[in-house]
Amino acid sequence: MSADIVNLGLVAAAEAVARGKLSSQALTEACLARIAEWQPKTNAFLKVEADRALKAAKAVDRARKRGAKLGPLAGVPLAHKDMYYRAGQESSCGSAIRRHWKATETSTALTRLDAAGALDLGRLNMAEFAFGPTGHNYHYGHARNPWNGERITGGSSSGSAAAVAARMVFGALGSDTGGSIRQPAHYCGLVGMKPSWGRVSRAACMPLSYSLDTVGPLTRRVEDSALLMRILAGADPRDLTASALPVEDYLKAARSGAVRGLKLAVPRRFFWDKLNKPSAELLEQTLKVFARLGVKIVEMTPPDMEAVTAAANVIISGEASALHANWLRTRPSLYSDQARARLENGLALSAIDYIDAQRWRSEAIASFLTAMNGADAVFAPVADRPAPTIAETDVAGSPEAGKVIATLTRLTRPINYLALPAMTVPAGFVRGGMPVGFQLIGRPFAEALLYRLGGAFEAKVPVYETLPR
Question: Number of folded domains in the chain?
């Protein structure tokens, strides 16, 4: 019964609690049993809050029995990347520097999930200061892919991806500055939403790059992502970059199936250049599914995406280094060698380089949107191949690791610079049993349309029904 419970989708779990078909206590106990089994295999959690979660679950069950109004996530266990602050609690940000640091305020993202009734099962592993694409962490141990423990989860939302894919929780917050939601979702067979820049408040969560950071969920199903995004999105007086544009009903969009007549643009140049054969074959099959759904598939010629990537790298390097400059001077030995080297690279950038990268941004966005040539969204790979191994991406043990790591966010990082919404959706599995996803890239604040497309595909190809063993 426990296995059946943890394989429920988030929306289904919430509805089961609301209708009294399942207790929140039963959901929580099933997740804790799953954690006991899978935490040793994945190292997804940094801390499990079992007692607190069970206490909260019992309170939800009592409230339901007395007829109290419940929130849309009431009694559903989640867990989150250890960069979302909760007042009075530790948040290490995956680092040694903040190993025992306690937050003085709670992030808006957590506050909104709390208000919706979600339970918080604990803090999840992540790349040190969210500045690493593999899932390696030299302070707390590397996260491991539930589909194959020798392979990376992707990063920096490594624990979030592992925990959700292994059915330890029903959803998790990640963050995406260069692909850190979409890329782990691809490697772990999940749905990962990077919203438009400004769609979700970043108040009281660890910053990496002010101009590129976004907050979003990792889930197993498209509708689950849609529900979480509906709760997370919207204006916030604590973060004046959070947009006041109305938030659409993403869950309704994900369930609509109304995609006939939409147009998907496929950018072969750059995005397909280095794609391995098994991934390419699976994605071609995916495009055929969309075509059968009545979606028109058209080709597009994107602008110079290498230049876009270069500009994104300048911004993230400069802004991350500025945030860490004092610690790099006063506490350099507390960084891992990999994180310190990446941060120190930004110290060599000039103000002219940074300003030029920012100044060109609006032109690059306009060029990409023009290249879409009237298409509703863009269909593209997330990464060149399925998850590589932990060994071949370990800079401490493989002389070729740097070359492999450089490819991991090649197809995601440009979209952060363009500030556009993009969602990873699982396409299926290639030989060897590793998942592969695709990303749907939209126009600014077109998250609802991405959910329509993703939900329609998932209804035909329910990858979420397959569990890691």
Answer: 2
Cα–Cα distance for residue pair 292/61, rounded to 1 Å:
44
Angle at 72 between CA 120 and CA 11, to 5 degrees: 85
Higher pLDDT, 82 or 3: 82
Look up residue 306 and give its amino acid. Answer: E
List the structure tokens of 292.
């059968």
Based on the fold, state whether residues 248 and 280 are members of the same structural domain: yes
Instruction: Report in angstroms the alpha-carbon separations of 196 from 140, 270, 302, 421, 422.
Output: 31, 22, 19, 4, 8
The answer on 384 and 337 residing in a single domain is: no
Which of 337, 358, 379 delimits the end of a domain?
A: 358
User: Do 289 and 422 sit in the same domain of this protein?
Assistant: yes
Mean pLDDT for all residues in the chain: 97
For residue 239, how far is the Cα from the chain centroid?
Answer: 20
Distances (CA, A) of 423 to 120, 126, 366: 24, 20, 20
Pick the closest to residue 336 from 113, 93, 21 (CA basis).
93
Q: What is the pLDDT of residue 1?
A: 45
Same domain for 320 and 216: no
pLDDT bin (cut points 50, 70, 90) of residue 398 is confident
- 183 and 164 housed in the same domain: yes
Closest C-alpha to 401, from 204, 177, 132: 132
**Which positions are annotated as active-site residues?**
81, 156, 180
CATH of the domain at 421: 3.90.1300.10
Nearest-CA neighbor of 194 among 329, 380, 430?
380
- Other beta carbons less than 10 A from residue 296's beta carbon: 14
The reply to whether the predicted model has a pTM over 0.85 is yes
Six token digits for residue 30:
């099933």
Structural domain for 338, as ranges? 306-358
Do 283 and 263 fall within a single domain?
Answer: yes
pLDDT in tens, 255-271: 999 999 999 999 999 99
pLDDT digits (tens, 9 = 90+) for 227-238: 999 999 999 999
- pLDDT 10s digits, 54-65: 999 999 999 999
For residues 288 and 177, state if they share a domain: yes
